[in-house]
Specification:
By secondary structure, the chain is an alpha/beta fold. The chain folds into 2 domains: 200 residues, Rossmann fold (3-Layer(aba) Sandwich); 209 residues, 3-Layer(aba) Sandwich (Rossmann fold), CATH 3.40.50. The protein contains 19 helices and 14 strands. The strands form 3 sheets. It has a 6-stranded parallel β-sheet with strand order 3-2-1-4-5-6, sandwiched between helices. It has a 6-stranded parallel β-sheet with strand order 11-10-9-12-13-14. α1 links the parallel β1 and β2. α9 packs across α11. The structure holds uridine-5'-diphosphate-xylopyranose. Uridine-5'-diphosphate-xylopyranose (UDX) binds next to α9. One of its GO terms (molecular function) is NAD binding. This is UDP-glucose 6-dehydrogenase. One of its GO terms (biological process) is UDP-glucuronate biosynthetic process. It comes from Shimwellia blattae (strain ATCC 29907 / DSM 4481 / JCM 1650 / NBRC 105725 / CDC 9005-74) (Escherichia blattae).
Length: 446
């Protein structure tokens, strides 16, 4: 099938590459000329395992095209994906200006039936807005061309985006048209073998499904972080509690890891956007607000531990930091807890020697060159002459380090661990002061 994807961001590029991989003829359109030129040369704007070879192969084999020419994009596909960004505006609502701009563009150039598919995470009611904008534009052209608008939210995880897209757990389709159901079944047929993963519903329910999924996951994390704060004060160990409750199949082990707060492009933005949506319709979303509040304060856990150890004034101190990205296997630092930590440490006069396996360029881009941030080539180099070690991201390579080397390199044998990577008892036996999240026995009582 011929497919056009507007917006070559995370969602758009991965979806386009995966659709091309199974044989569809996919054209990607973006306003960013540099991005388009780079993609043609095989330079991918994001770090995502498996994406570069997939994009390069399908581009070279002629099933994946990149262009800035919106008109040819509209002409190309009957399927028109909208996968542009929906950044939060000042009050945290999702800003739809890029989505409506694409809708206008499609209506401006279309001459035959199009299926317009909202892939971006958009507030409930967006499909109606897209439809209205397109009808207005067609009216201005004095044309009556048929089209359908579909909500088809994406559930991919950064770091596992290609795999999630190739083997989706579910394909949610919101539409009011039977004909569209057939077209989408054909489009997704290669991903829907063995058992039917397609869940059909009305458009508004599909739009809400995406927010509900992300907000439920964020709720699980904030709930566990709240329990971890209780455990810390009660002298209990949240890691034991996590295993204890995870073993109940109704609760499950997934997404109940306490830590220094969730980040990324989805959870913080989507929880806030659903809060705003609720407020706009006169409903006060108490639970969602609590999820957001717990997460905000959780991001201050590590700086609080540092102050507990070293006092309010951190002038003259240098900290080794392992992990800058909001989670492992990505270079993404959007809403990462490392950013709250860095900024708190700097505010108190400390310097940081940081290492991350992938996010060094991103840190450079965000913070530029400054004396208080030294980006080091290895995790060992980051330790050298630092006062203590802080861990923000659970990269695999941080899980079994050489503790003798850490102790020799640091001025003080102190580790602040925002991801509960180590066994507190073992670290104490090795002579470390070990701060972790919600492991009361090791810190609160000492
Ligand atoms: C998320 C959703 O998982 C995905 O379905 C949706 O489409 C987009 O948003 P992503 O943001 O890529 O994906 O990352 P995810 O793996 O979900 O992690 C989000 C954050 O939660 C990370 O900061 C992670 O460290 C944190 N987290 C996750 C926890 O603190 N504890 C957990 O138990 C799980």
């Amino acid at each position: 099938m011929k497919v056009t994807v507007f917006g070559i961001g995370y969602v758009g590029l991965v979806q386009a590459a995966v659709l091309a991989e199974v044989g569809h003829d996919v054209m990607c359109i973006d306003v960013d000329e540099k991005k388009v030129e780079n993609l043609k040369k095989g330079i991918i704007p994001i770090y995502e395992p498996g994406l570069t070879p997939l994009v390069t192969k399908n581009y070279e084999e002629g099933r994946l095209h990149f262009s800035t020419d919106a008109r040819s994009g509209v002409e190309h596909g009957q399927m028109q994906f909208i996968a542009v960004g929906t950044p939060p505006d000042e009050d945290g609502s999702a800003d739809l200006k890029y989505v409506t701009a694409v809708a206008r563009t499609i209506a401006q150039y279309m001459t035959d039936h199009k299926v317009v598919i909202d892939k971006s995470t958009v507030p409930v009611g967006t499909a109606d807005k897209v439809r209205t904008v397109m009808l207005e534009t067609l009216k201005q052209r004095d044309l009556d061309v048929p089209f359908d608008v579909v909500s088809n939210p994406e559930f991919l995880k950064e770091g596992a985006a290609v795999a999630d897209c190739m083997r989706p757990e579910r394909i949610v389709i919101g539409t009011d048209s039977e004909a569209v159901v057939d077209l989408l079944r054909e489009l997704y047929e290669p991903f829907n073998r063995n058992h039917d993963r397609m869940i059909m519903m009305d458009i508004r329910s599909a739009e809400l499904t995406k927010y509900a999924a992300n907000c439920m996951l964020a709720t699980k994390i904030s709930f566990m972080n709240e329990i971890s704060n209780l455990a810390e004060r009660l002298g209990a160990d949240v890691e034991k509690v996590r295993q204890g409750i995870g073993s109940d199949s109704r609760i499950g082990y997934h997404f109940i890891y306490p830590g220094c707060g969730y980040g990324g492009s989805c959870f913080p933005k989507d929880v806030q956007a659903l809060i705003r949506t609720a407020e706009h319709i006169g409903y006060a979303p108490r639970l969602l607000q609590a999820v957001e509040d717990v997460n905000e304060s959780q991001k201050y856990k590590l700086p609080e531990f540092v102050v507990r150890q070293y006092g309010e004034n951190l002038e003259g101190k240098t900290f080794a930091l392992w992990g800058l990205s909001f989670k492992p296997n990505t270079d993404d630092m959007r809403a990462a807890s490392s950013r709250v930590l860095l900024e708190e440490l700097w505010r108190r006069g400390a310097k940081v020697q940081a290492f991350d396996p992938e996010a060094m360029n991103e840190a450079q881009r965000i913070y530029g060159h400054r004396d208080e941030l030294m980006l080091m080539g290895t995790k060992e180099a980051a330790l050298h002459n630092a006062d203590a070690l802080i861990i923000c991201t659970e990269w695999q390579s941080f899980k079994a380090p050489d503790f003798v080397e850490i102790k020799n390199a640091l001025r003080d044998p102190v580790i602040f661990d925002g991801r509960n990577l180590y066994d507190p008892e073992r670290l104490e036996k090795r002579g470390f002061t070990y701060y972790a999240i919600g492991r009361g026995a090791s810190i609160a009582l000492s």
